[in-house]
Write a structure and sequence with these properties.
Layout lengths: L15 H20 L23 E5 L4 H13 L4 E6 L2 E7 L3 H10 L5
Antiparallel strand pairs: 1-3, 2-3
Length: 117
């Protein structure tokens, strides 16, 4: 008769396998519920929605060009004059916007050109 090692078979050893399986399935259920919940907490950025011109906070429209190319030319003219301007694709079409405190100067520049500042 040889020497045999004693194997631990405690009172709760038979529960280890099923409890581990239930724990893994529970974690998978929680992960899948989070992944397919449909809430807007996605890690992928959604395509921005164009709003109306009054929905842009501190920015006010100073020009409504017919195309984005014309709008970019107007925006660059304002930036060359030292004003911060942006071309925004609104629901009403492209608009050149500036901050409210620069509106009067921006309209004058667009009306008369950059020399009349």
């Amino acid at each position: 008769m040889g020497n045999t090692a004693r194997v631990f078979t405690g009172n709760l050893a038979y529960l280890f396998g099923p409890l581990t399986a239930f724990a893994v399935v529970g974690v998978l259920v929680l992960l899948l519920r989070w992944a397919f919940s449909g809430r807007s907490t996605s890690l992928v950025a959604r395509r921005p929605v164009a709003g109306h011109s009054e929905e842009y906070g501190l920015l006010v429209p100073v020009a409504t060009p017919a195309t984005f190319v014309e709008g970019e030319l107007l925006r660059r003219r304002l930036e060359d004059a030292g004003l911060r301007a942006t071309l925004v694709p609104t629901a009403d079409g492209p608009q050149v916007m500036v901050f409210a405190d620069s509106e009067r100067v921006a309209r004058a520049i667009l009306r008369h050109g950059p020399q009349s500042r």
